[in-house]
Specification:
heterotrimer, B: alpha+beta, Ubiquitin-like (UB roll), DNA polymerase, domain 1, 5 strands, C: Aldehyde Oxidoreductase, domain 4, seven-stranded mixed beta sheet, 20 helices, globular
Chain lengths: 292, 156, 751
């Protein structure tokens, strides 16, 4: 493993100043479950590792039924699914936090880290997209916000500029008659990277027979996780039916542009987009219907 | 030669000081600097669980933690589990159930099982299997390991 | 010779002797070895699957601060055209040496080309990036059928096919062709009412032991070389290192540390000679560790293969003829397990007319190594699937057709040997009687499959010495590294002879200077052969103890008998003394007692297994879930049933991994793209149900307690059993391994 320097930052300004000063070869360390492996395997050139875990803002986990959730960038998965209110409000996010790595990974890995790692196959990103989440970014010129679906720009690349860091993720409060669902396809039952991932959120009317609005997002079928905008739009105002869901699934397939690699073939992935989109939508709808 | 940092941490209840390079993982520090070789390297990228230790009460892969990150923290390893004259009930259960063959994955499984039972003293078989999915064993087919953890839960 | 009685120790389940060390983290494995002044070695590996080495320049690496030595193939003795004798047949020494450090050509990605020793592992790794190797890249040959084409690129310009004793004139990638023939296959097929012929393809799979290879070596000033390492056999390490370095075995001591899994993959040496070379160059102890990618890319997996099986039967279900064609990828150098595959393929059945052809073919992949019943799983995937299809075609229950045709004592295997008493039929009967087989299985997309398997097991040399302690315990010294509880299963056999509890035996696995020659822990031989040696050593102790008792009582030895831990005199004088009490009196009766036993037994006795599996197939995703698994096996006599069950369960699960997801995935350049535990998908515990291991005991006449080897055969049936279950579930015959989701989707016509 190449040599690097390690600095623990205690405040956002300190971290931002360090990032600004050290430039491209500095990386933020939160859970480290991706970063340490990438540096070890010489997949990232890093001279400076800036540990942000003692910064209070990145450890925020504040849920309020009116304003929603502020999820600090370094909050580990296990803390998220240990919170009953978050489990109830954002089940699609919980689905993802419980399948990222194994138990030991979930003790360190953060959803914010999953986002910054910007893997096309990230399990944490589709649920954030379907939950309308926003990234809060700090930089030398202050804070800015970016919708999650615009955060990743290419495999391993994000909108973060030199000196910028992800502080937290804001998720709006769940609407009534809404729920979310995330699932992925993997050949084993744990420990794999998604061959395809699909997340869905739905808002139903009071009869729970009609979709008021829906959002669908996909992982591992393009250079970045995708918001399936057209597929989502087609469901607005539709009565729940297999035909409507199939239509959305087909529209989701239409935007998939997967590659073939050791985890799956392009044709398998395109096929799975349809299967998983249907399952994610049905899962979210069922959750609304089962909610008391 | 890279600079070495001074780190003070607690390992198995004892205050420990060591010097390490930033690039040395907690696993390397435990094994090479402190000669606590119970945690094993199976993959060095978080996919086998042979290096599992408990860091501030949470199960982690020690290959994915930098040694320098443990400043002021508390680490539990397999070496600290048994009392001087008595094994931990999970260790007993592994022996009684013949839940090990080659034994290389055993310390990791036992630490993982301890972390599970610390927070869920009565897991179902499925909960045990889900929790231990990050620990690979190639010898046993897991049957006897799962039974041992369920037995240990019942015994505690 | 078979002792058939109620045992006191055998068949019980004591805590294994090394158990406490292994659950407390105190057991020392190879990588745990520490020494003052230790240097750390790292191997540079080829990025190309097939290339000529034009030049290697190590000067930049040598100049890096902290680097203490660099070695390349130039530091190896000239192999010339010598043939190395490793006790397992002749091996071309150049091939052996080139696989340690490539001299003129690299033949697979991951092929070792140089190695560095430095003051810490990170510096050694960095130094490897400073070694400049110039390659002339050649086209790789990555698949066995492609490699057999006449115009395929050649790996070795001097390799010529040996076919049935004749050597061809032209070079080829086909190293050898073997054939076994029994009866008149043509006539047999003519008598058949139904003939099924199918082709099968299996992928390259790895043993997947969790502990990477490791070695620490040190040369003393007097030339004594010591190697501490994890290995399946310290003596085979000594032999291989002696051949490769052309160094006398008397100057090499191999200290076996605890071993973290092997399954056949830790018999061949890779980095042990390299550690020795670096130690010689630096004068310091040098530890070389592989990482996980090194293990996948630089050690021997088990071959991919192409198999064609044709079987014929009468409408009543009697098998009349069978034909097998097996082409195995040897990897970079000759020596695939196509031989054992050809021995095992139809061995569960009594078929009068059989012909089997086997081909050993080199390709640009790592030199293959044994993996649990090497060759037999590939073969059985084909034959057991075809048999299932015949049974279905004829409307016969798949276990019934196995009972009808099952091999028995006196039947001849196609490759020659006649079966001694074997327990195949008993495994099928036990599977049939098991509640699993009669449980309901009607749900949509659920299916049940069965398959059987055979492995011949081996004997080979083992040595055991027993030192008797004054307190009635014994110290048992052995040379078999303990991979799965064999300290216990060996100690228990000695304890049984001497009428003492298993806990009264202190077994130690020692180095090559401290025990008689002992072959590898492999071939399912350890409990059988080293246990046999322990039995013989204990018998020798017993004989000496009888002499002492006779001396004590001043009676004739013939008048002393030993039973249930007590010596007693017969014929008049009534005397009695326990084993323990007599141990306290050895000093006064002539001094310490040491008993040794050595064996090279021929009667290993073949092992059979029959497995039943229920699966559920997700037709939309192609994913197969294992719902229930029952594995029946003839153990001969289970010495420690828990560890026999463990072997059965572990073997079955490795087979499940092989069946469903495990394979080396290559790109067109011949690079393995999934060389990690993330993407080489071995089963986790969440992928499995409990594995019901059912032990059948048909004693092996070739062992005093009836032991048969149990380690290997459980990996033979799972692939075909699962394929047959998938067929039962969704009506599709899978003929390619692994039966991964994408392949199922294709077979189902979904993609």
């Amino acid at each position: 493993m190449r040599d690097f320097s390690y600095i623990a930052a205690n405040t956002i300004p300190e971290a931002v100043a360090l990032l600004d000063e050290k430039g491209e070869n500095a990386r933020i360390l939160a859970g480290g479950t991706d970063l340490i492996v990438q540096v070890r395997e010489a997949r990232r050139d890093v001279n400076w590792i800036i540990d942000i875990k003692s910064i209070p803002e990145v450890n925020a986990l504040d849920y309020n039924a009116d304003t929603g959730l502020v999820l600090g960038a370094a909050v580990e998965c296990y803390k998220i699914y240990a919170d009953d209110a978050i489990c109830k409000g954002y089940p699609g996010l919980i689905d993802a936090t419980k399948i990222i790595g194994g138990t030991a990974i979930q003790g360190r890995a953060a959803v914010g880290g999953n986002l910054c790692n910007a893997s096309p196959a990230a399990d944490g990103i589709p649920p954030l997209i379907v939950l309308n989440a926003t990234c809060v970014i700090a930089g030398p010129n202050g804070e800015r916000e970016v919708p999650v679906e615009q955060f990743c720009t290419a495999p391993g690349q994000t909108v973060l500029k030199n000196g910028e860091m992800l502080v937290s993720i804001k998720i709006p409060a769940p609407e009534s008659n809404s729920s979310s669902f995330y699932l992925r396809f993997i050949p084993r039952n744990e420990m794999d990277i998604a061959v395809v991932g699909a997340g869905a959120s739905v808002v139903l009317d009071d009869t729970k027979q009609t979709i008021v609005s829906a959002r669908i997002a996909l992982a591992a079928v393009a250079p970045t996780p995708l918001f399936a905008e057209e597929a989502s739009a087609r469901l607005a105002g539709r009565e729940i039916s297999d035909a409507a869901i199939d239509e959305a699934a087909e529209a989701a397939k239409a935007i998939a542009r997967p590659i073939s690699d050791m985890r799956g073939t392009a044709e398998q992935r395109t096929h799975l987009v349809g299967v998983l989109t249907r399952r994610a939508l049905n899962g979210a709808i069922q959750r609304v219907r089962e909610a008391t | 030669m890279a600079r070495r940092s001074h780190v003070q941490t607690t390992i198995n209840g004892e205050t420990v000081e060591f010097l390490c390079e930033p690039r040395q993982s907690l696993l390397e520090v435990l094994r090479d600097e402190l000669h606590l070789t119970g945690a094993k390297e199976g993959c060095n990228n978080g996919n086998c669980g042979a290096c599992s230790v408990i860091l501030d009460g949470r199960l982690v892969n020690s290959c994915l933690v930098l040694g320098v990150e443990t400043e002021g923290k508390s680490v539990e390893t397999i070496e600290g589990l048994a009392a001087p004259d008595k094994l931990h009930p999970i260790q007993d259960a592994f022996l009684e159930n013949a839940a090990l063959q080659c034994g290389i994955c055993t310390p990791g499984f036992i630490m993982s099982a301890k972390a599970l039972l610390d927070q869920n003293p009565n897991p179902t078989e499925h909960e045990v299997r889900y929790w231990l999915a990050g620990n690979l064993c190639r010898c046993t087919g897991y049957d006897k390991i799962v039974r041992a953890v369920l037995d240990a839960a019942a015994a505690e | 010779m078979l002792e058939n009685k109620d045992y006191k120790v055998i068949g019980t389940r004591p805590i294994r002797h090394d158990g406490v060390d292994k659950v407390t983290g105190r057991a020392l494995y190879g990588a745990d070895f520490q020494a003052a002044g230790l240097l750390h070695g790292r191997v540079l590996r080829s990025p190309h699957a097939h290339a000529k080495i034009i030049s290697i320049d190590t000067s930049r690496a040598e100049a890096l601060p902290g680097v203490k030595g660099v070695v390349t193939a130039k530091d190896l003795p000239d192999a010339g055209d010598k043939v190395a004798d490793l006790g397992e047949g002749a091996v071309n020494l150049k091939h052996l040496c080139d696989n340690i450090l490539a001299s003129d050509k690299v033949l697979y990605k991951g092929h070792a080309v140089a190695a560095v020793a430095a003051t810490n592992p990170h510096i050694a790794e960095e130094a490897c990036t400073l070694i400049d190797v110039e390659y002339e890249v050649l086209s790789p040959v990555l698949e066995v059928r492609q490699a057999m084409e006449p115009d395929a690129p050649l790996l070795h310009e001097h390799l010529k096919t040996t076919s049935l004793g004749e050597t061809a004139d032209e070079p080829s990638n086909v190293a050898s062709h073997i054939q076994h023939k029994l009866g008149d296959p043509e006539k047999g097929f003519a008598e058949a009412d139904v003939i099924i012929e199918r082709e099968f393809v299996t992928g390259t799979v790895h043993q997947g032991y969790i502990e990477p290879h490791n070695a620490t070596a040190h040369y003393n000033a007097d030339g004594q070389l010591t190697i501490w390492c994890s290995t399946q056999g310290a003596f085979t390490v000594r032999e291989q290192v002696a051949e490769i370095l052309q160094y006398p075995i008397s100057k090499i001591k191999v200290v076996p540390m605890e071993i973290g899994g092997g399954f056949g993959g830790k018999i061949s040496v890779y980095i042990k000679p390299v550690a020795a070379m670096l130690a010689k160059k630096t004068g310091k102890p040098v530890k070389v560790l592989m990482n996980r990618a090194d293990v996948f890319e630089g050690t021997g997996p088990t071959p991919a293969s192409f198999i064609r099986v044709k079987m014929g039967a009468t409408k009543e279900g009697k098998l009349t003829a069978a034909q097998g064609y097996l082409a195995f990828e040897a990897g970079a150098y000759p020596g695939s397990p196509v031989g054992p595959g050809a021995m095992c393929i139809f061995a569960p059945y009594s078929i009068e007319n059989v012909i089997i052809d086997g081909y050993d073919v080199v390709v640009n992949k790592p030199k293959t190594a044994p993996y649990r019943a090497p060759g037999a799983p590939n073969a059985a995937f084909g034959s057991e699937t075809v048999l299932d299809e015949i049974a279905e075609h004829l409307g016969i229950d798949p276990l019934e057709i196995r009972l009808m045709n099952g091999a028995k004592e006196g039947d001849r295997r196609a490759d020659g040997p006649v079966h001694p008493r074997i327990g195949f039929i008993e495994t099928v009967e036990a599977a049939k009687a098991h509640p699993h087989y009669s449980a309901p299985n009607g749900k949509k997309h659920h299916g049940r499959g069965v398959a059987s398997g055979y492995w011949f097991n081996i004997g080979l040399e083992s040595s055991v010495t027993i030192n008797v302690n004054a307190d009635g315990t014994i110290n048992l010294v052995e040379g078999s590294t303990d991979i799965g509880g064999t300290r216990a299963s060996i100690a228990m056999q000695a304890a049984e002879v001497l009428g003492i509890p298993a806990e009264s035996v202190n077994p130690s696995v020692v180095d090559t200077n401290s025990v008689g020659y002992t072959a590898v822990t492999g071939g399912s031989r350890t409990t059988y052969a080293t246990g046999y040696a322990a039995y013989e050593a204990a018998q020798e102790v017993k004989r000496q103890m009888i002499t002492r008792a006779a001396k004590l009582w001043e009676v004739d030895e013939a008048n002393v008998q030993f039973a249930d831990g007590e010596f007693s005199s017969i014929n008049g004088k009534e005397e009695q003394i326990s084993f323990r009490d007599l141990c306290a009196r050895l000093g006064e009766t002539g001094g310490p007692i040491v008993g040794s036993g050595t064996v090279n037994p021929g009667g290993a006795g073949g092992a059979y297994a029959t497995h039943v599996v229920d699966v559920e197939v997700d037709e939309e995703t192609g994913k197969v879930e294992i719902l229930r698994y029952t594995a029946v096996q003839d153990a001969g006599k289970a010495i420690h049933p828990s560890y026999v069950e463990g072997q059965i369960q572990g073997g079955a699960v490795q087979g499940i991994g092989w069946a469903l997801n495990e394979e080396y995935i290559y790109n067109a350049e011949g690079e393995m793209t999934n060389a990690s535990f993330l993407d080489y998908r071995m089963p986790t515990c969440l992928d499995l149900p409990m594995i019901d291991a059912v032990i059948v005991e048909v004693p092996n006449p070739g062992h005093p307690y009836g032991v048969r080897g149990v380690g290997e055969v459980p990996i033979v049936p799972p692939m075909a059993a699962i394929a047959n279950a998938i067929y039962d579930a969704i009506g599709v015959r899978m003929t390619e391994l692994p039966m991964s989701p994408d392949r199922l989707l294709k077979a189902l016509g979904k993609i």
